Structure formats: structure tokens, C-alpha cells
Amino acid sequence: MARRSTRQPSSTDDLDTRKAAILEAVVREHIDTAQPVGSSAVAATGHLAVSSATVRSEMVTLEREGYLAQPHTSAGRVPTDKGYRYFVDHLQAGVVGEAQQQQIKDFFANVRGEVEDVLAQTSTLLSQLTSYTSVVVGTGHAQSAILSTQLVSLDARHQLLVTVFADGSVTKHSVLSSFDVSHVEVAEASRQLNALLIGTVLDARVQVPSRLDHVATLVREAVATLHAEVPTLDGEQVFIGGSSKVAEAFDGVDTVRQVLAILEQELLVVSLVQDILDQGLSVAIGSEHGFEPLVSCAVIVAPVTIDGHPSGAVGLLGPTRMKYSEAMAAARAVSAQLTHHFDGDDRA
Amino acid sequence: MARRSTRQPSSTDDLDTRKAAILEAVVREHIDTAQPVGSSAVAATGHLAVSSATVRSEMVTLEREGYLAQPHTSAGRVPTDKGYRYFVDHLQAGVVGEAQQQQIKDFFANVRGEVEDVLAQTSTLLSQLTSYTSVVVGTGHAQSAILSTQLVSLDARHQLLVTVFADGSVTKHSVLSSFDVSHVEVAEASRQLNALLIGTVLDARVQVPSRLDHVATLVREAVATLHAEVPTLDGEQVFIGGSSKVAEAFDGVDTVRQVLAILEQELLVVSLVQDILDQGLSVAIGSEHGFEPLVSCAVIVAPVTIDGHPSGAVGLLGPTRMKYSEAMAAARAVSAQLTHHFDGDDRA
DNA sequence: TGTTAGCACTCAATTCTACTGAGTGCTAAC
DNA sequence: GTTAGCACTCAGTAGAATTGAGTGCTAACA
């Protein structure tokens, strides 16, 4: 049960049962209706046998303590980020519905294709399951050993370095040489590259030949090109599904535009997801992720592991008033299945 | 100057100079303001020395002939798809502004990385230049000869078939064998695959070995896996840039959602662009592309060729009241530069 | 014959008003 | 501590009046 340690350090983060029940009712109702929730509506839920007046006075407290807010004097209450946080940490508990469970099962039973395809389709699945925009992140191959490299000649000046990693990923890098290279030379360079690189990881130091002949130069250039990838987000893959859901989930064209603009910058999305995971959170609500343009969003993440070590994540992005229970359950179910899928019998 | 031959076959598609001038004024103004344009606004442009009354009577004709429409009785006129079409075919003429020309130049001077990266970045560029959503399509490698294949062993049962094509594209395919395979066998299979496939195109028939030993089986499976790709859109690549612009360009959350949903289905986008190109058009306005959900959109396309043969396209998607001149000019400029880029000195 | 000024007419959009009602905070009684 | 009662607030709505942009028509004009 992750919790923010920063922000509101003074609050004890504990509510008596009744306050909690009222908060829960407000959150539930507001998620449902998108409207401010009044004291009488809470009293009418029947979960607590008190009058609206009592609810009202409790609400004043809840508001003072920062769990609720009032859009204007004569309106009901709306949960704050802190209110949602309490709800998520203490109150909600979701399971995936029968039908959805089945849908997930069917999906993973039938899905085929390369890892990338599976991830992309998973993203679509998750978005369909929840009606929120989904993000699937696959970590790069920086820590994966190189299984094989091959230098292929496109023409006299252009070679293509194709590298296969132990995790099954493949990269290609163009190598432009400043002199004409024969097929024989390319083949020899390819052989040397294999000898040099097989078994190493991307950021390992390797001993490149210092000679000045064509082959050695080619080898040096190839290694340099390959290693140039390391500093950038190496081979991180992002798959975003259901970006059209953004238009449904948020009102206000401006918010929609802003969120979409963020989603376009995939690096941002990756680091956002990574940040949240690093904090040990599974949900970041509103301002919690400290990412200004997304204050009106909540982000749910669930890690995916392969053979025990972290190798990606699935995420969901929705409005702060999203259906946490369902969405979190779906994210967890999918991430578990995904983990299972890649751990399991076939890697294809 | 492409023109639709279907639809409105009765119309002569010719307007006298004054009508044309009025239509032009209406289109220009409406693109600018997004509001219906009145007769006095047209008269006030100064481009024609007549009173608003005269403009009015001409507008009645233009409306009767289908170039203009009136949202309601006491409003100005708005161009119809046909009106825009006339405008595009006869009236607009755009050049790319200094600054933009420079931006394009700078971009292509500095861009580096693999083809995919270039295309993705180009898509972003085009979207930034025009403030519309851009689509960059790269055709597949179906017609490209295979330069090299390599079978790499991930573990005893899993192999990865990596194929390099003459156009510089690389594919990977998982091959799952039903028996354990040794490294030696994989190496031998890899050698045979090379012998078999190098120089062929994807949909070519190749003579696979019919023997039943491990190596032969492996070879058969690998070839089958590779060839299974042909029927689908083989290696078509789509890069969509600036989907957030959708939220700006269209009003009405519903339209935004619909357009975004279309953009998510990349196959649809590819076939849309392809359709328009096949019709010899460079712009499809509203209902012209016959694609119901996009009736409020206009799509601009410009082909990209490599070494003379068509190998992709750049496109822009905006509202029917988009800035055709600028957008078309930008699309043309970028497609030309892209063509040049890939024809030119370096392929990287 | 084509053009234009003038005018009555239409109708969306705006403004204003009054009103409604959901919801509050406070208080006094239980 | 709880609750009924009440005065108060204020967004939202509905209706009426007004505005004004724009039209179509007609009659006069070059």
C-alpha cells in the first residue's frame, strides 16, 4: 500500500469510520455522475444511518482537512487529489468482471506475432477494457547480451548493422563509410564484429582494432554507431492505445489538446511511467506525479516482469475521477497475464 | 490538376470571373473566420467593384449550383465541398513561406538516423509546419529483394529469423520449432536459408527442401513464417504526427473523438491515403474520399518516390475549411525534400 | 440589361430578468 | 452528539425583449 511521504506531511491520513464512509460515498457518486455531491445524496445512500445535517457537518471537517472541495458556495462537494488518494489507499477494492476476465484470457490465448505486435495489441485491449487511454512500455535491451551481429552491404558506401539481442529484440543501424568497401571486406568486418560483440551488453567497453585498413575502420565505425545508442533511451518501446478516449474522458477541448500533446511525446510518457514505478506507486493522482500539464489526470501503472526482472509496464491514463477499482484491476490483470505470457511456454 | 470525374456529372464546373471571385472571397474569408460569410463582407474585400446587392444575387446562383450553402436563412454563406473543390482546382496557389522553407531545409540538413526515424520526425515536422495532423506512409518491402537472412537461436526451441531487404528494411520473425535444435543445426539452416532466399522478393516461390531432418524442417518453417507476412499489409509503415491538432482543428468533442478513433486504425489511414493517390488526387475534400466518418475532413496527399518509383506518401488531415494553399504547399515541399533525401547522397 | 439603393423580413445570438432549486451554514431543540 | 428548521447563496434555466447581421425582393437607374 504505497503512500506519498511528501506533501501534506502534517496530516495524519486517518479518518474515523464515518468520515471515511462519507468520503467514499462522495468519491463513488462523483465518479459516477461527474457532478458535485451534496450531503443529502450521501445520506440517501443508506450506508450510514444519519441525517444530511450530520453529513454536512462531517463534510465541513473533510473539506477543512483537504479531502473535499467545493466548486462554489451552494454546490455539493468534489473530492480533491488527497480525497482520491485516501479512497484508493483505503477504500476501493476491485475485481475484474467475468466478461472482461474472459476477454483477457481469450486475447492471450490467441495473440501471436512478435513481441512488439503483442505489446501493441495489448495496449488496444487494455484501452478497450477500461475506456481509458492505455500505455504499454517495454524496456530497452541495454542490459541484454548481444546474440549476433551482421553487417550487410546495401551498396559500396552503405552498410547496415543488424544486431540481435538475447531478449529477442533486433536493431539496425546504418553505417556510412567514407570509402568504397568490397563485399569481402564487409564479410570480414561482420565476422570480426561478431567476435567482438557477441555476449557483451550494449554499454560494455570493447577492444576495437586500431589498424587503419578498410575492415578495421568499418569495424570501428560500426561499434561506434551501435554504442551511440546507449545514452538515449535505448530501445524503449511505447505503445499507446485508445488515444481517442481522451476526448471522451476529459471535457474542455483545451485539456484534450494538452493531454494528447503529452501523449505524442513518447519519451515523456516513458519517464512518467518510470517515475511512478520508481516511487513504488501504482497510481498517481493529479498533482502527485508532479507533472504540471497532467494535473487533471490520474495514471495507473502495473509492472511487467520477464523471468523475474522488471522489463516493462502497462499503464492507464484517465481523468482524476476515473473508475479506480475497475481500471486498477484491469491493469493488474493484464500485467499479470503479460508477465505470464512472456515467462511461459512460448516467446513468440 | 486532378479533378473528380464522378459526382455532379451535370455541372460544367465553370464559373464566370465574377462568380469565381466571389466564391474565392467566401472561401478565403470562411477559412479565416470559421463564420458564414455575408455579401457585404465579400463586397468589402475590394477585389471587385460591385455592391453587396449584386454579390447577393450572384450568391443565390452559386448556392443554386451547389458551391455555397446557407446554415440558416439570415446567415451568410458557407462553402460546400464542391465550393472548396473549385477553389482548390482553380483559385488557390500557395507557396511556402520563407521561414518554413528554411525550417524544412534545416530539418533535412540535420536529420539523421534510420529511415523509420526520419519518417517519424518528418511527420512531426509537417504537423508543426501546418498545425494539422500529418500522416507519413512508407510502403512495404514486398517488392524489395532480400539481401540477407539469418537464423539466430534464442534457446533450444526458439529461433529468430532476421531478414534484411535491399531497401534497407529489416524484419524479424520468431520461429518456434517442435523439437530441440542444436546451434550447429541452426547455423546450417541459416546457411541454407541464405542460399534459398537471397535475391528473391517476398512473394516469390522458392524450392524448400522436402527432407524430414531437423535442418530441413527448420528451413521450411522459417520460409513459411516469412511468407506468411505477404498477404497482410507487408511492412507498411505509418507515422502520425500532431494528433493533438485534431482537438484544435475540429470543434465538437464528438468529431474529435471520431477522427482520433480513425487515426488509431493505421490500416484505415494507409488505405485512405492510398485510395486518394490511386484516384490521382492530391486533395480529397469532405465526402470525396467516400469515407463516412471523415466527412468533415479534408485530406491532402503528396507522393514520395525513391529512385523514381513510388514508395510512400506524406499527408495532412484537417477540417474541410483548412488552409489549402499553405498546407498543400507544405506537403509538396516536404514530399519533394523527402524524395530528394532518399534519392540523394546518403540513405542513412 | 445589368446594377444598385432601399426596405421589409428573418432568425440566431445576446442580453436581461426573474425564478428555481440544490445545497449550504447556523441555530436551537432533542 | 444529532437533527430539524430556516435563512441564505448562487449556478443554472427559462422566457421575453432586443439586437443586428444578413437576406430577398422591388423599383429606379445607367
How many strand elements of chain A? 10
> How many DSSP helices of chain A?
12
Q: What CATH architecture of the largest domain in chain A do you see?
A: 2-Layer Sandwich
**Number of domains as seen in the coordinates of chain A:** 3
Helix content of chain A: 40-55%
Commentary on this structure:
2 copies of one chain form a homodimer. By secondary structure, the first copy, chain A, is α+β, with helices and mostly antiparallel strands. Chain A folds into 3 domains: 17-91, Arc Repressor Mutant, subunit A (Orthogonal Bundle); 98-139 and 236-343, GAF domain (Beta-Lactamase), CATH 3.30.450.40; 146-227, Enolase-like, domain 1. In chain A, 45% of the residues lie in helices and 18% in strands. The first copy, chain A, is built from 12 helices and 10 strands. Chain A has helices spanning 17-33, 39-44, 52-64, 81-91, 98-110, 115-130, 183-197, 214-227, 245-249, 253-264, 266-278, 324-343; strands spanning 68-69, 78-79, 133-138, 146-153, 158-165, 170-176, 237-241, 283-285, 297-306, 309-319. In chain A, the strands form 3 sheets. A 5-stranded antiparallel beta sheet of chain A has the order 7-3-10-9-8, with helices on both faces. In chain A, strands 4-5-6 form a 3-stranded antiparallel beta sheet. In chain A, strands 1-2 form a two-stranded antiparallel sheet. In chain A, a hairpin with a 4-residue loop joins strand 5 and strand 6. In chain A, helix 6 (115-130) runs antiparallel to helix 12. Chain A is elongated, with a radius of gyration of 26 Å. Chain A starts with 16 loop residues before the first helix and ends in a 5-residue tail after the last helix. The relative contact order of chain A is 0.13. The model of chain A is unreliable at 1-11 (pLDDT under 50). Chain A binds chain B through residues 114, 124, 147-148, 150, 152-154, 157-158, 160, 162, 164, 166, 168, 170, 172-174, 176, 241-244, 246-248, 251, 253, 256-258, 260-261, 263-264, 346-348, and chain B through 114, 124, 147-148, 150, 152-154, 158, 160, 162, 164, 166, 168, 170, 172-174, 176, 241-244, 246-248, 251, 253, 256-258, 260-261, 263-264, 346-348. The first copy, chain A, binds a DNA duplex (30 and 30 nucleotides) through helix 3.
